[in-house]
Structure of FUSC family protein:
Amino acid sequence: MTWWRALRRTARSGLRVERTRLEPLVALRTAGGVAIVIALSLWLWSPPVAASSAFGAFAAGVATLQRSWRPRPVLAMAAAAGLAVSTFLGYLAASHTVLFVLLVAVWAFGAGMAWALGPTTGTVSALTVVVMLVVVTLPTSVLSALHHAALIAVGGLVQALLIVVFPVRRWGRQRDALADAFAAEADFARRLRHDPLAPFDPAPLMTARSAAVVSPWQARRRPEELHGNRALAERIRPVLASLADPRVGAAAEGPERDRAREMLAVAADVLDAVARAIRSGTRVRVPGEVQQLLRTPETDAELTGAAARSATRLASLLAAAIERADGSGPADTTGSAHLLRPSPRELAPLAWRAVRRQAHWDSPVLRHAVRLSAVASAGYLLGTALPLGHGYWAPMTSVMVMRPDFTQTYERGVARFTGTLVGVSVATAVTRFAHPGTYTFAVLAVVCVGLMYLLLSTGYVVAQACVGGYVVFLLGMGGTQLEQTVRDRVLLTLLGGVLAMAAYAVFPAWETTRLRDRLAEWLEATAAYTAAVMDAYGDPGSRRPGAVRGALLDVRAAGTTWDQAVFRADVEPVRHRGLSRTAVRDADAALSGLGRIGLLMEAHLPPRDAPPSPGAARFARALRETTAAAAADVRDRRAPSWQPLREVLEGWQAAPGEERIVRRGAELVGETLDDLAEALRPRSLGRRHPAGGGAPRGRGPGAGGGRD
């Protein structure tokens, strides 16, 4: 893709406004925190102090609205602590330009590396850089630094206190995540009725797992319906696929297929009912005829063999899901143990290791940190050198729009300038025609910030329009000359956006050049999962608890990383001799199919007292060995060879009484890996952009379709 096309595409994406479910009570509560801080500051001190102290409550409120499963009060207090420290240090260094620029550079680098811990940590860390840039306009002394840092911290504490005193829909996000997982499986069951090989997007299951990670304190207070149901949802998914797949389940046509479709329809209705009950906290409402169908699958004459076992297992799991959602079922002891969040003592070494893993020159996080450090310090020097007021707006814009990847950086750059232009223009017009006083300015600022909190999920451009109005009204309350502010803010915002975009163009971290590495990682993870399933057949009595489950989670993570890489590479203005469009599509289909085969076999894992399958054990060992060489071939731009694995498969003589499904699964694995080798043959390599047609099967970033 050329630079012109890439810029047009990211500009359109950045200006997109989405319709999402709004949370007015949450927005009202968070805006109330800003209002309290402004009111107290106006009462106790002065409008300029109120204008500056409101930033702490504003930034802490933004932190609580980030996509994170940690308790909202904890996010508010953590943000307040970071903001207070950056404010204090910025105050002390503000009078010495060289010292301040060095401080900004180091602090911005640390904020950039914080993306190694996740997007929420990265976003909140960027806010601390913004605060440090803003405080240089204030008088400097140790006492005033402590005073202002305390005011910033109080803003975060107020937000945390409001969340505790006025809770809105306790455990609501966790309920939604688990309900979305069940609803996704209901949709999957309906699609399987018409397409037995329909793909499944495991993203809702991954989100539900993230939402289930709790602290010991939370584990003791979590609602009963949120404990255990996630494990049931995970176990229902492979059973649905195994019942519908004609290779290992119901026959492609005839009475058996009709009965399978009926069971899938029943499953969809039950899963939807469970999702509604979990989301609303009410009892599950399932029609009586559905309950009857769940009690009689083992008596069906139409279903035989593996299909009959799948139907019986499905009925049992659905009945358990109904009981667990109603809070009346027994605790699920097969995989629903609490996923405990690390304590602060345990979290520190984990965070350090995560940062160290990104400390190499090709890391997108390290490159982002270098760009952020350079742009923040250079933007500050350039902003102060220009004959404009409020020079900190240029580096502040750069810090807020910069992200580790090309797409988000350019989207946010366009959205921030457009939103700022609209918000500042509207707010300036209101100010000129209405001539509001100090308290009216304060009310208008709170209204704007409330709208920002309410509409934050609809699009960055909308949020920035609200922020633009908020800043104009807040500065108007502090007595700043608005005409100068409007001109300066628009020009410096444009400058900051240009600096951010130019920094990425000069020092990029392209996903295009890493596509083969991402594909090799996904191949290794998927083969390891399939081998773990084969090991369970090879020696059922000695299989390690959680081995298959852990391997499946690795597949999902690697598949999501691959999807994100393809999505980002699709809009990058890079020409690289990597994977062609056809190779990306075919390799994606082959590895998705390999993961599905492992899942089908997992649905029929033998009991621990079942006889071992020596052929499965040999196949698993050969699969691991050949995958190591195949992954190296993929990275080195060679088509992988699966000849050693094929030889093991050809020499596999099924033992008497051995499960037919494991032998059939091994055959399907061999066929799928041959498809992968065909997709990556040299004739499939080209000079064109690797994924110009979009992410595989129309998925967006993080979708992870077919990853299990």
